[in-house]
From TrEMBL:
Free-text function comment from the UniProt entry: Catalyzes the reversible isomerization of glucose-6-phosphate to fructose-6-phosphate.
Organism this protein belongs to: Hyphococcus luteus
EC numbers on record: 5.3.1.9
NCBIfam families: PRK00179.1
Cellular component annotations (GO), alphabetically ordered: cytosol
Localisation: Cytoplasm
Reactions catalysed: alpha-D-glucose 6-phosphate = beta-D-fructose 6-phosphate
HAMAP family: G6P_isomerase
Protein known as: Glucose-6-phosphate isomerase
Length: 552
């Protein structure tokens, strides 16, 4: 693909941005009563309103033209037909195959992978049913009521986020814990809270080589064996979710306790695979399947809707407009649902590990900005923390507001209050408050003219902060599945437009390699170590300082 920034479509959008520089979003709403209907889309149980972006018909047309110039439709086709679009790792990217319950078959390198998907799902179901039905018991004959999922990155964030999101669907009496950090306090705190006789450990790792996960898994195994369990009992209490059968066996997990997925499932796109076992155990397999169905409904929409009516495409294009033409480098994810409290963390990996890239697929430096910084918190907590900067900071930040119209747990008037905040924030971010309005307000409040002069600048809100609103009726397994798939496809579309490979993550390697070098240079408690050398002065100095304290 030629550099997208050199195309006439890109230049048309640059001209649009220049023409709209002094046009307020407020005036766009005042001039066009049809704006909400024109810039909203309903699909797969979700409703997206992207009208509070500085988008006009020209902009929308030019964004679609840009998508055509980037051959977005072709890229989508190549992904869905199993082409090795992850070019640096020579892998297909087929997470939609994990949740396709139609008769459609997916192929990778000539092999029908749908059969394997169905077989693995059946194996997961039988295991989950066995645990729930009490046929699978612990080493002392007690039922397995507790799960400890040991994994990190995609092997933690997805299942943890979804399990939390589906709290109202938890099976009574069951508890899932998630251990990710190599900080020993994480596993120690968790082990202190569980009973070895009733706990099932899930070692979740695509590669089964990740330092954090293997260290935590080994600690969990030793803890288990120190509680009167034998090596043979490991089979009853440890299962593995991985693509690496060899390493799973070497760790001591029997073949029948390994649930497989494949190299065409990216770690951050894997919660639909065996990696979702902790979700299935906590909410039941039927609800796990509903999650997959919800995602599939979004896949079908993404696959077939015309670009202008396609929710992931338009969400992606609004993001490209904000990022590349309005210079917005940060994007907030703001779920107004406490159960979605891990969604921002999940999307940080999904988006930033996918699109935090600086070279194109061909290895050329990209000529435009790529993925933004993603951050967020549930509303309303974020309002009392960082929204000040969203409203009045010097940087523009775009945001997604996400809410169910009906809460799973309607309590008094909490939900109306929550929603009023959601709606008010998007309105305030769009409208802002002019100096004239600020002054009139201060006058109304009885301030004297000098005080009005002094305070007015602080009370001005520039407005024009772009937001998307994503509504659903309720947060259910189906709508959650659709929501996650929406973001997956948004990320895919943006990566395709920027011409980058969204499916590798070489950027995590350098730090990992250096940590391996540093590990043997660090003192165990009470150990003396020679002065560090071979690093820069800062790193040597820090190693020496840490070692001096640890030697005491
Ligand atoms: O951070 C790098 C990464 O490879 C992620 O992409 C992945 O989700 C995570 O590590 C965990 O990897 P694994 O599932 O192989 O343990």
């Amino acid at each position: 693909m030629t550099d997208i920034t050199g195309t006439p479509e890109w230049q048309a959008l640059e001209a649009d941005a220049a023409a709209l520089k002094d046009v307020s979003m407020r005036s766009l709403f005042e001039k066009d009563p049809g704006r909400f209907a024109r810039y909203s889309i309903e699909a797969a149980g979700l409703f997206l309103d992207y009208s509070k972006n500085k988008i006009t018909e020209d902009v929308a047309d030019h964004l679609i033209a840009l998508a055509m110039a980037a051959d977005l439709e072709g890229a989508r086709e190549r992904m869905l037909t199993g082409e090795a679009i992850n070019t640096t790792e020579e892998r297909a990217v087929l997470h939609p195959a994990l949740r396709d319950f139609s008769q459609r078959d997916y192929h990778v390198g000539g092999e029908n992978v749908s059969r394997k998907v169905r077989a693995e799902l059946a194996k997961m179901k039988s295991f989950a049913d066995g645990v729930h039905g009490g046929e699978r018991k612990g080493y002392t004959g007690k039922p397995l009521t507790t799960v400890v999922n040991i994994g990190i990155g995609g092997s933690d964030l997805g299942p943890f986020m979804a399990t939390e999101a589906l709290r109202p669907y938890w099976i009574e009496g069951r508890k899932a814990h998630f251990v990710s950090n190599v900080d020993g306090q994480h596993i120690a705190d968790t082990l202190a809270a569980v009973d070895p006789e009733t706990t099932l450990f899930i070692v979740a790792s695509k590669t089964f080589t990740t330092q954090e996960t293997m260290t935590n898994a080994e600690t969990a195994k030793q803890w288990f064996l120190s509680h009167g369990a034998s090596e043979d009992d490991i089979a009853k209490h440890f299962i593995a979710l991985s693509t690496n059968a060899y390493a799973v066996k070497a760790f001591g997990v029997a073949e029948e306790n390994m649930f497989e997925f494949w190299d065409w499932v990216g770690g951050r796109y894997s919660l639909w695979s065996a990696i979702g076992m902790s979700i299935a155990l906590q909410v039941g397999f039927a609800n796990f399947e509903k999650l997959l169905h919800g995602a599939h409904a979004m896949d079908e929409h993404f696959r077939s809707a015309p670009l202008r009516e396609n929710m992931p495409v338009m969400l992606a294009l609004a993001g490209v407009w904000n990022r590349n033409f309005l210079g917005i480098g940060s994007h907030a994810v703001l779920p107004y649902d406490q159960h979605l409290h891990r969604l921002p963390a999940y999307l940080q990996q999904a988006d930033m590990e996918s699109n935090g890239k600086r070279v194109t697929k061909d290895g050329e430096a990209v000529q435009c900005e790529t993925g933004p910084v993603i951050f967020g918190e549930p509303g309303t907590n974020g309002q009392h923390a960082f929204y000040q900067l969203l409203h009045q900071g010097t940087d523009l930040v775009s945001a997604d507001f996400i809410a169910p119209a009906v809460s799973q747990e309607e309590t008094g008037d909490h939900h109306e209050k929550l929603l009023s905040n959601f709606l008010a924030q998007t309105e305030a971010l769009m409208r802002g408050k002019t100096e004239k309005e600020a002054r009139a307000e201060l006058k109304e409040e009885g301030y004297a003219p000098p005080d009005i002069d002094r305070l007015a600048p602080h009370k001005v809100f520039p407005g024009g902060r772009p937001t998307n609103s994503i509504l659903m009726e309720k947060l259910t397994p189906e709508t959650l599945g659709a929501l996650i798939a929406l973001y997956e496809h948004k990320i895919f579309c943006q990566g395709a437009l920027w011409g980058i490979n969204s499916f590798d993550q070489w950027g995590v390697e350098l730090g990992k390699a250096l940590a391996k070098t540093i590990l043997p240079e660090l003192a165990k408690a009470g150990e003396e170590k020679p002065e560090a050398e071979g690093h820069d002065a800062s790193t040597n100095g820090l190693i020496d300082r840490v070692n001096a304290v640890r030697a005491k």
